[in-house]
Amino acid sequence: MKKLVLFSGAAVALLSACVSPEGVSGNSNTRSFAEVPENVRAIAGPGQDLSDVRINNADGCFVYRHQGPVETTYLPLRNRKGQPICAKRDEPAEA
Q1: Those residues with Cβ within 8 angstroms of residue 36's Cβ, 6 or more apart along the chain or in another chain
Q2: Angle at alpha carbon of residue 64, lines to 32 and 83, rounded to 5°
Q3: I need a labelling partner for 43 at 20 to 30 A (CA). Which of 55, 67, 83, 88 fits?
C-alpha cells in the first residue's frame, strides 16, 4: 500500500511538469509585436532578450521573455538606467 501511494505521488509530480507555465504563452493582457520598434531597441538596456517583446495593455509598458533556469516569464523591459520602457498613452480629454 505504501508503494502505491509513493508511486501515485511521483506520477502526479512528473505529469505536472508537462503543463505549460502561464508566462510562456502570454495572456490577453499583453500584445505581441512582429518586430520590436527601432526606438525601443535603441534605448533598451543590455542583457535583455529582444526576440519576444510584448506590450502590457494594463500599464502600456514593454515586457520581454526571460528564460531562467527554472521558469520562463515576462519581465519589464528596462532602459540603460534601469527604468521601465513604456509607450506614451493618450490621455482622455476632460470635458
Answers
A1: 50, 53
A2: 120
A3: 67
* DSSP code for 17: T
Alpha carbon separation from 86 to 21, 48, 57, 61, 89 (Å, rounded): 25, 15, 11, 4, 9
Residue with cell 514593454: 62
Rounded distance, CA 89 to CA 61, Å?
10
73-93 tens-digit pLDDT: 999 999 999 999 998 766 555
Q: Which helix (H) or strand (E) holds 52?
A: none
Pull the grid cell for residue 15: 505529469
Rounded Cα–Cα distance for residues 63 and 24 (Å) = 12
Cβ–Cβ < 8 Å for 21, 71: yes
